[in-house]
Design brief:
The protein has 4 domains: 3-52, no CATH class; 57-187, Beta Polymerase, domain 2, CATH 3.30.460; 314-494, no CATH class; 502-551, no CATH class. It contains 28 helices and 14 strands. It has a 7-stranded mixed β-sheet with strand order 6-7-8-5-4-9-10. Strands 2-1-3 form a 3-stranded antiparallel β-sheet. Strands 11-12 form a two-stranded parallel sheet. α12 (255-264) packs antiparallel against α14 (291-308), α14 crosses α23 and α27 crosses α28.
């Protein structure tokens, strides 16, 4: 870097191509050609020197490793979001590369050199993928594709947003930026590359909302209008692409704000149409919102709750008394909650996203079950049972795995049980029994922690500023009791050791295989959890007594 390039005055052009005349910048652009044309419009008699003003960024180690195995004689650029992330000092899990041709063969040669996995992604677009397994069992993806046009600049102009229409020349570390994406990054603006960008690929409507939330950017006014115009075309996009974007939105920051944005853009009804019926459905106190507004508030509260319970959170930084109490009451479980949320049921879809999808659907059937009793109170009997079926249907439509669908169902089906515990503690000073705790964990199907987190967010989303410290304390005490038993007393209450198996019961009680054996085994475990059975003899004695009761049933 020479003195002219390094001068403070010229650092304003970092990451841009400039035209210089006698050491002075006279024009700039995102490419050498743009800088030259800009200078010729005002200095047509002078011949400028075209230079790149270096931008300061550190290359991630994985990218440095990849660069050592790239063919030295081929034109290859790092493109898209990975360049954006370099300029904003964000980690990037994926890297896209563009070359004039031979994308699949490039990917194959890089995979061979790195001893990584290779797969062809798109023969038509000449795109191949390298999959690198990291030390922590996560994956890094390297995609190599041929230009989407006759040149690199044409490729970049055909992308979704200007902040992603960037390329890095890996030979000299110069940035190609024909759409002034770096300027939009500095201005924190999401701007479409063209008026047709959304209609050419409507999933970009979802992606724009996601990236605005992820980066804290504002969507340009014209881009918002183009999004609205293209929203109805989302139905023509493959459900897998829609699902993946929705899961990224729900797994990222400000999920509630993103869902609001999709709704305002007219996209939500084309993605998850069953949600729209919640709008305007009134609820009785203690609810302060209609069902839809309440649901969005629950997403906001869940986001804040997970931040408070995130690893390394400093309780001194919050001015929210209620969230401060969260840290005080259950903050000791931060690491265990983080471990739980870090274990997805599908390696490509985060646990957090699945929890937020359940939160989005937890009251989806309130409109279908709404009734008014003789006192004028609004009721929603069985909305949890019916809602479980609706969220399962959405899971099937999204092509989720069986485990993911089962998790969604069990969360929505059981989301009211926590509130029963909390109400009883606050109003009757009665804590849940050991048997009730055992049944809660048993019926949660592995989603006990999810149910606790959703219930706390639900409580705050229900009452808002009307929530009293006493009610919140009761909710947190129930959360503490459940998590304490879940993690600190598992063998005693949650998962007592088996004292007898089915063969033992059939032998000792002269039973045949059937449902009776299963019912007896479960009754024994419930009474173990309650502390009423402690050894094998007590288990057998109870089984004989329980069997005599069954024989007497009509």
């Amino acid at each position: 870097m020479n003195e002219e390039t390094a001068s403070p005055k010229n650092q304003a052009y970092a990451g841009r191509w400039v035209a210089m005349v006698r050491g002075r910048v006279v024009a700039q652009g995102g490419t050498p050609a743009q800088a030259l044309r800009a200078s010729q419009s005002s200095r047509y008699k002078e011949k400028p020197e075209i230079r790149f003003m270096p931008a300061s960024f550190a290359l991630p180690s994985i990218l440095e490793k990849v660069m050592t195995v790239l063919p030295p004689d081929e034109e290859i650029y790092l493109v898209g979001g990975a360049v954006r992330d370099l300029l904003t000092s964000r980690p990037s899990p994926d890297f896209d590369f563009a070359a004039p041709s031979n994308g699949i063969s490039l990917a194959r040669s890089v995979a061979n050199a790195l001893r990584a996995d290779f797969m062809p992604l798109d023969d038509k677009r000449d795109t191949g993928r390298v999959v690198i397994r990291n030390a922590d069992d996560s994956f890094t993806y390297l995609d190599f594709a041929a230009y989407r046009g006759a040149s690199l600049e044409e490729d970049l102009r055909d992308r979704d947003f200007t902040i992603n229409a960037l390329a890095l020349n890996l030979k000299d570390m110069t940035v190609i930026d024909p759409m002034n994406g770096a300027g939009d990054i500095r201005a924190k603006i999401i701007r479409a590359c063209s008026p047709d960008s959304m209609s050419h690929d409507p999933v970009r409507v979802l992606r724009g909302v996601r990236q605005a939330a992820a980066f804290g950017f504002t969507i340009d006014k014209s881009t918002r209008e183009w999004m609205k115009s293209a929203a109805h075309k989302i139905e023509n996009v493959s459900i897998e692409r829609i699902r993946d974007e929705i899961f990224k939105i729900l797994g990222g920051p400000k999920a509630g704000a993103s869902i609001r944005a999709l709704d305002m853009l007219g996209a939500l009804t084309h993605v998850m149409p069953e949600l729209s019926k919640m709008k305007g459905v009134a609820q009785s106190p203690p609810h302060i919102h209609d069902v839809w507004t309440h649901t969005l508030a629950v997403l906001d509260q869940l986001d804040g709750l997970l931040s408070i319970l995130g690893p390394g959170f400093d309780a001194e930084t919050t001015s929210d008394l209620f969230m401060g109490l969260v840290s005080l009451k259950i903050g000791r479980y931060r690491e265990k909650i983080a471990e739980r949320l870090a274990k997805p049921l599908n390696p490509t879809r985060p646990h957090r996203s699945l929890l937020f999808l359940a939160a989005l659907y937890h009251d989806v059937c309130k409109p279908d079950t709404r009734s008014i009793d003789e006192t004028g109170r609004v009721r929603f009997f069985d909305h949890d049972v019916k809602g479980a079926e609706v969220v399962a249907e959405r899971g099937r439509f999204f092509h989720l795995s069986g485990d993911e669908i089962a998790r969604l169902k069990v969360i929505v089906r059981n989301h009211m049980r926590f509130h029963f515990f909390a109400d009883r503690l606050e109003n009757e000073n009665q804590s849940p029994s050991r048997k009730a705790i055992y049944r809660f964990v048993r019926d949660s199907g592995g989603a006990g922690v999810d149910l606790v987190l959703l219930a706390l967010a639900d409580a705050r989303g229900t009452r808002g500023s009307d929530l009293t410290q006493e009610t919140w304390a009761a909710n947190l005490d129930i959360a503490r009791i459940l998590l304490e038993n879940y993690w600190e007393r598992p063998a005693e209450v949650v998962n007592p050791p088996r004292l007898l198996d089915g063969d033992d019961l059939m032998k000792e009680l002269s039973l045949q295989p059937g449902k009776v054996v299963g019912r007896l085994l479960e009754a024994i475990r419930e009474n173990q959890a309650s502390g009423k059975i402690n050894d094998r003899e007590q288990a057998l004695e109870f089984a004989r007594w329980e069997l005599s009761r069954m024989d007497g049933e009509p």
